[in-house]
Design goal:
Blueprint lengths: L1 H9 L6 H16 L4 H16 L1 E10 L4 E4 L8 E4 L3 H9 L3 E3 L11 H6 L6 E7 L5 E10 L8 H45 L6 H16 L3 H10 L12 H4 L7 H18 L5 H12 L20 H16 L10 H10 L7 H9 L1 H10 L3
Antiparallel strand pairs: 1-2, 1-6, 2-3, 4-5, 5-6
Helix pairs in contact: 2-3, 3-6, 7-8, 7-12, 7-15, 8-11, 10-11, 11-12
Bound molecules: ligand C2E, succinic acid (2 copies) and fe (iii) ion (FE) (2 copies).
The site of one succinic acid has 5 residues, from α11.
């Protein structure tokens, strides 16, 4: 990266072909192996900027549902948005036209509002629509202020940026699709969890709380933020198998008979059966959690009687989150316990029902958990 910046700073004239090739190879290798949409947008913007010696380059994507153009200025930060009919980017998008401008302030389509806010002075502008595989316009590449001495973009710049746009359109489309699939999965999983919860007549926010507690436990245990988030997204499904358990068992006010309890235990296998066919990451994690959240560290849990680290870490984490929430909440078959009694149970069950290391983590982050308990109280 440093090397590329040096080239840009030293040059006052357009790039030589070998410098262009260097830039193209650099970014193509980055873009070809990148699935993260934020990073793709940033790499593509940088590639455009370096190729045509623009001061700024932005790749705006069109959201047809919200009628906005949006982009990322840094990985992970909130998206920047603007209405899809505003300014030069909006014009290029709506008309599906390339725009070349030497002096933006002489063009009625230019909206100087942003300059006024930021103090930046826009002069030359190049905007190129980006098409998806079906030939629909999915966004625009916008370059601002040519850094060469004449200060204007050329026909060659347009060709280069168009080439970059057509190359990166494919990578973008596939990343967008992935993101859409993942978002859809998150929503379906959360909704299914809520359905399971309403069937099982548990208290209102049980699945939400189990999700939040599980994430905190995962982070404090030392799992990565993205894996911890995966557990949060997948754990609301832990009791989805209860949709298949008869109402008179689920709602029974007193203690279950042995036969009733063994029917109840089937919710783990049923949930696993519902989820296990998927190869998607979120659903695979949800399947593991549905299957293993009632396994116990000493091997006396169900359905498999797994022991110790045979139990997947997702199962061990969700087990603690689930039992904690069950104990501090009212159930149709029991009243909520005092916090002291709950803490004592976890101490007694350390290394018996629960992973001892996770119990330590849990007790260590109890304050954080209690904040979430209040935040998502029923
Ligand atoms: P749940 O109500 O969500 O409880 C989840 C887990 O929290 C239970 O798993 C158990 O490990 C723990 N837990 C809940 N209440 C108590 C308690 O009073 N003492 C102790 N030591 N642990 C408790 P478990 O036992 O496998 O039960 C699975 C599910 O079966 C429960 O989910 C609940 O839906 C149902 N269930 C269990 N026992 C009874 C019961 O006596 N009557 C009724 N109606 N349902 C029950
Ligand atoms: C959702 O997409 O609303 C569910 C994800 C979560 O917050 O657990
Ligand atoms: C399970 O045993 O719950 C599932 C483990 C897996 O499918 O990877
Ligand atoms: Fe359960
Ligand atoms: Fe539960």
């Amino acid at each position: 990266m440093h090397e590329l910046q040096d080239i840009k700073i030293k040059l006052k004239e357009n790039l030589a072909p070998e410098q262009m090739l260097h830039i193209i190879f650099h970014y193509v290798s980055l873009i070809a192996s990148e699935k993260d949409l934020d990073l793709l947008l940033l790499y593509m913007a940088d590639m455009g900027r370096d190729l045509i010696l623009a001061d700024r380059c932005t790749l705006w994507l069109h959201n047809k549902e919200t009628h906005q153009l949006w982009t990322k200025v840094a990985h992970g930060v909130k998206a920047l948005t603007m209405p899809d009919e505003v300014g030069l980017a909006g014009y290029a998008l709506m008309k599906n036209e390339t725009i070349f401008i030497e002096d933006a302030y002489k063009d009625p389509r230019f909206n100087p509002e942003m300059d006024l806010k930021t103090g930046y002075h826009t002069q030359s502008v190049l905007v190129i629509p980006i098409q998806n595989q079906n030939g629909e316009t999915m966004g625009v590449y916008q370059a601002i202020n040519k850094l060469t001495s004449d200060g204007v973009f050329s026909l060659q710049d347009m060709n280069l940026l168009s080439l970059a746009a057509s190359y990166s359109g494919k990578a973008l489309e596939s990343a967008l699709l992935d993101q859409e699939i993942e978002q859809t999965q998150r929503e379906i999983i959360f909704t299914m969890g809520v359905i399971g919860e309403s069937r099982s007549k548990e208290t209102g926010n049980h699945v939400k709380r189990v999700a939040e507690y599980s994430k905190v436990l995962a982070l404090n245990y030392g799992l990565s933020p993205s894996e911890s988030d995966l557990i949060k997204v997948a754990s609301p499904m832990h009791d989805i198998g209860k949709v298949a358990i008869p109402d008179d068992i689920l709602k029974k006010p007193g203690k279950l008979s042995d036969e009733e309890f063994s029917m109840m235990q089937a919710h783990t296998e049923i949930g696993y059966g519902l989820l296990k066919e998927s190869h998607r990451k979120i659903l695979r994690s949800a399947a593991i959690i549905a299957h293993q959240h009632h396994e116990k560290w000493n091997g006396t849990g169900y359905p498999k009687g797994l022991k110790g680290e045979e139990i997947h870490i997702y199962g061990r984490i969700t087990a603690i989150a689930d039992v904690f929430d069950a104990l501090v909440s009212d159930r149709c078959y029991k009243k909520a316990w005092d916090l002291d009694r709950v803490i004592n149970l976890f101490k007694e069950e350390r290394g018996v029902q629960f992973d001892p290391k996770l119990v330590d983590v849990f007790l260590g982050c109890l304050e954080e958990i209690l904040v979430l308990k209040d935040k998502y109280a029923d």
